[in-house]
Design brief:
Elements lengths: L2 H9 L6 E4 L5 H13 L8 E5 L14 H8 L7 E2 L3 E9 L2 E9 L7 E2 L2 E6 L2 E4 L2 H14 L18 H12 L2 H5 L5 H7 L3 E2 L4 E2 L1 H7 L3 H4 L5 E6 L8 E7 L3 H16 L2 E5 L5 E5 L3 H14 L8 E5 L3 E7 L20 H9 L9 H11 L6 E3 L5 E7 L22 E2 L2 E2 L27 H14 L6 H8 L4 H14 L3 E3 L12 E3 L1 H9 L8
Parallel strand pairs: 1-2, 11-15
Antiparallel strand pairs: 2-5, 3-6, 4-5, 6-7, 7-8, 9-10, 11-12, 13-14, 15-16, 16-18, 17-18, 19-20, 21-22
Helix pairs in contact: 10-11, 11-13, 14-16
Length: about 525
Amino acid sequence: MTQQELYDLIRLDESYRIERTVSTGDMDKFQEAICAFANDLPGHRKHGYLLIGVDDKGKISGLKVDDALMKRISGIRSDGNILPLPVMTTEKVETPKGDVLVVDVTPSFETPIRYRGRTFVRIGPRRDIASREEERILAERCSAALPTFDTRPCREATLDDLDLEVIQSQYLPKAIAPDVLAHDDRPIEEQLAALHLYNPQWKCPTFAAVIMFGKNPRYFMPGAFVQFVRFTGKDTGGKILNERRFEGSLFSILPRLENFIQDGIITKRPIPISILREKDVYNYPYKALRELLMNALMHRDYQANTPTRLYQFDDHIEILNPGGLYGEARPENFPNVNDYRNSVVAEMMKTLNYVNMFNHGIRDVKFLLAENNNPAPEFKVDYITAFAVEIPIATDDVPTASSGVGQKTRHETGHETGHETDQIRFSVTGQQKEEDKNEVQETGHVTDQEKKHVRRLIAEMGNETMTRQEIMNKLKLKGRGNFLANYLYPAISAGYVAMRFPNSEKRRDQAYYVTRKGKELYNFYGSFNFYE
């Protein structure tokens, strides 16, 4: 946007398309404005603009827009508070009188858009919560405009084909703000229409409603179930040891699948890591399998007659989904670009806390698998009518205290800027200095308490390479025994920190750096409390 285009916007009276503000910290106000612009109640299909750094009289306030403000405002799009996700861009425009942060919001077809369960609209220059009639207008406009399968009317179905008790007692209280729901005495048809679960034109539920809350979804969509098969060997030519079908509404299937993954697939066994200590080793990390399976059910093609397949073999698990990459997602940009084949189903799964819709699920899966000692997953994205992922079983190469400092395990060799790769795992052994033997116990397994110390160590080191004393100074620690036992050696043992000279442990100028795996750990916990 040029300065002249900005000036033209500023000169417009504050209307249903323009909102000005000098505040930079009122996130509720910003998100309500974006929600209202996306709903586009007048239906003119014109973009709305939130101008941060301009007062009510159209005067530029002299704001300095920095990266932190840009990231905070841009994060509104995907933080999950506005659903369905709005289409918006942010841009800093510099002027002689100061910066202006322009938030450009595209009118949505998936109306009504809600911010924390409330539908906001623009009434001229004023922002307000939509009335029942306004919600009905937005819902009818959506049903006429959206082409995706889950928003289409399921004309053979009636409300009797839905579990209305579950919808009213379990879903509506999570999808709608409590105070709004408490005063909503509209007929159930209108309430469902506002959530894209009922088509008022055809007077029937949508496919999204049948998928999530239908009493018998397979009557309308024969492939709407999950098939699990346990084979012996490494392919489908092996003997079938177990077979199960998960049928019914997604609302009933999802918790059953979570329990089945935990109890029917995940196994653990203890492996000794020293004379006195053991570590539980899992064949697959639960959260990774859950994430992949939830994504499969969210993105699958429900028009296909093929079920979602969950196949377990001796050395890997395969999830095969009908429906290839959709919309803007392509083999060349996967997984950086995401799109939703079933936008309403995705919104409902987000509301029920089964998915987050932040588009970092694949990144988290890769990290969880690596942390569990599983090789990287293989995503098969070149199929036209299907999407598949293979998850290899965890390797048995768990380092022990007898393996020696700096010893490499299988699948864990490489180079990174002249150092040993961050995939090398270490254990504290008799190679440590003689004076440390009485101060440090053997390690190789990171306890819950040690994890907090390790995360603190990683955060303080950042991208720097430091000596042992420099790290202790950063952490403000004086006891070398405590530092080695609870911070440095657990971090090295887990592969989060590595030695600058791994083959010369006793060098006077020995230093340490955070590995790529350590940085991934920091990034993984970045949106949470890193020290918890």
